[in-house]
Amino acid sequence: MTKKKKQIILLTMKFIKEKGFLAFSYDDLAKELGITKAGIHYHFEKKGDLGVAVCTYLEETLEQTYSDIKQETIKTTDKPLVFLSKRAAQVDRHAVCPISALQADYNDLPGTMQEKVRQISQREVRILTELLEDAKQDGGLKAMDDLEGLAALLITSAKGGLQYQRVLGDAFFSKVWTAFNKLLKCD
Amino acid sequence: MTKKKKQIILLTMKFIKEKGFLAFSYDDLAKELGITKAGIHYHFEKKGDLGVAVCTYLEETLEQTYSDIKQETIKTTDKPLVFLSKRAAQVDRHAVCPISALQADYNDLPGTMQEKVRQISQREVRILTELLEDAKQDGGLKAMDDLEGLAALLITSAKGGLQYQRVLGDAFFSKVWTAFNKLLKCD
DNA sequence: ACACTAACTTACTAATAGGTAAGTTGTCAA
DNA sequence: TTGACAACTTACCTATTAGTAAGTTAGTGT
């Protein structure tokens, strides 16, 4: 993977978070990188190829965040929320989670990308479920039994919350975050 | 409001839920209605005009659902979830909540639409908060105090859940829904 | 000095987007 | 019968989109 390719992927990530995959263009990339549109096509022949590369990058950062958090020396019961917080921190202001953005465009994505988006979506929920299971085993979450349901609740709310934040401001996401804390500390 | 105008608005709603506001075109509408693109422009000169009309329609259906639920003879403690259920029922399969779709395109929307989307988003949260307050006053939700936070949690999760449903299937949204029920019945 | 290659640029195509101006058609009232 | 208006159609414009083919340039190994 060349430096330029990585640079293009990172910039594409930025555009996906701000505008979505369908709404950004090769020309947007070209202008910001100071090269021509055809120069981008040289690195990623079709837009779908670039999209798949971005998905692969998203997979990698997800697994990276996961292995980081497993090694960290914090209380196991805190890890679920730290995971969500780390993930949310990767989203810039006035943007949304890139996975959410890809889900929004899902119906019009090339098949190869749909497959990847499905995998990542599923994997993220699975990871949070595992962290919740660890937390429970460690003595937390006494009242909770349906940890898959809890993981689904937290993930969907976090993603939805980031989307609302764009419209209603930072204060709104703070409310959601406070609710998360209260929800997980009812032991 | 002519019949044709309403017909266009309803079809636009369908496209927004399936593809988003930016991704559907006047040509899509024209083909489905059996008239030409210019025929749509006759009724809604700019795409933004059509967008505002759709937003107004969304406002009306939201208020309609609200006044319906206030009059219904069901337990006050059940009304928050019935509200969410009624709202979710208005979303077809493999589509998302139209408000979510407009939030996703928010940054590229004309200013007049942004204002409307902000208002509707805020109003929906407010309505759910009121229903939760009524439920608490009626004896439910004993453990809960931050009802604004709870409303934010439920709304964001419902919206996020519908988006995940598109990718991971109906079973996923069911998990979220089950979590809602457990969450509100801890009295 | 020479050939090869990576990383481009220039110049193009076909399709689609939103939007407009001018003309057409059917209906209804005076 | 005639005029007027609503609801269109035809024909166009400009901008933007993804994508391609062919040519250029800078560096690298021999």
Automatic annotation (TrEMBL), chains A, B:
Residues 2-62 form the HTH tetR-type domain. Residues 25-44 bind DNA. Keywords: DNA-binding, Transcription, Transcription regulation. Pfam families: TetR_C_13 (PF16925), TetR_N (PF00440). InterPro entries: Homeodomain-like_sf, HTH_TetR, Tet_transcr_reg_TetR-rel_C_sf, TetR_C. The keyword Transcription applies. GO terms for molecular function: DNA binding. Transmembrane segments: none annotated. It comes from the Bacteria. PANTHER family: HTH-TYPE TRANSCRIPTIONAL REGULATOR YJDC (PTHR47506:SF1), TRANSCRIPTIONAL REGULATORY PROTEIN (PTHR47506). This is TetR/AcrR family transcriptional regulator, transcriptional repressor for nem operon. It comes from Sediminibacillus halophilus.
